[in-house]
Amino acid sequence: MDVPPIKASESLGGASTVPNQTSYWFSVMLILGTWFIPRLVVYGVLASLLMRAEGHRRWLSLFILFILWPVGIWFLQPRIQKIFQKPQERAIADHLV
C-alpha cells in the first residue's frame, strides 16, 4: 500500500487562505481609516467649536451627540441656531422658550 505524501499547504487548509485573510483585514482597516476615523475627528472638532462658542466645558457630551446625529441633532440644532442669531433676536427668543 503506497501512501502519497501530504503537502504542508494541504494539511493547513490550503495556502490560499493566508492572502485572503490578509486582504480582508487590509480592506477592513482601509474602510476604517478612510471613513470612520476622519468622521470622528470632524465630530470632535465640531464639538470643541460648539463648546467654545457656548462657553462651557462639556466636550464629551457634545461629541456623543454629534456621533449619534439622528437623535443628537434634535438637541444640537437649537443650540447651534442660538449661536448664529443676532443679540437682539437671541434675547427675544430666549424669553419665548
Write a concise synopsis of the structure shown:
The model has no long low-confidence stretch (mean pLDDT 77). The chain has helices at residues 8-11, 17-54, 59-67, 69-84, 87-96. With 97 residues, it is mostly helical.
Question: How are the SSEs ordered, and which strands pair?
Answer:
Blueprint: H1 8-11, H2 17-54, H3 59-67, H4 69-84, H5 87-96
Helix pairs in contact: 2-3, 3-4
Report on this model:
This protein is an all-alpha fold and about 100 residues long. The chain contains five helices and no strands. The protein is rod-shaped. It starts with 7 loop residues before the first helix and ends with a helix.
Keywords:
mainly alpha, 97 residues, 5 helices, 79% helix, single chain
The number of distinct helices, counting runs of at least 4 residues, comes to 5
**Shape descriptor:** rod-shaped
How far from one another are the termini? 92 Å
What is the CA-based Rg, rounded?
A: 27 Å
Instruction: List low-confidence stretches.
Output: none
Level of helix content? over 70%
Overall pLDDT, averaged? 77
- Give a short account of the largest sheet: none
Order of helices and strands: HHHHH
Q: What is the structural class?
A: mainly alpha
Counted beta strands: 0
What is the multimeric organization of the chains shown? single chain
β-strand percent reads: under 5%
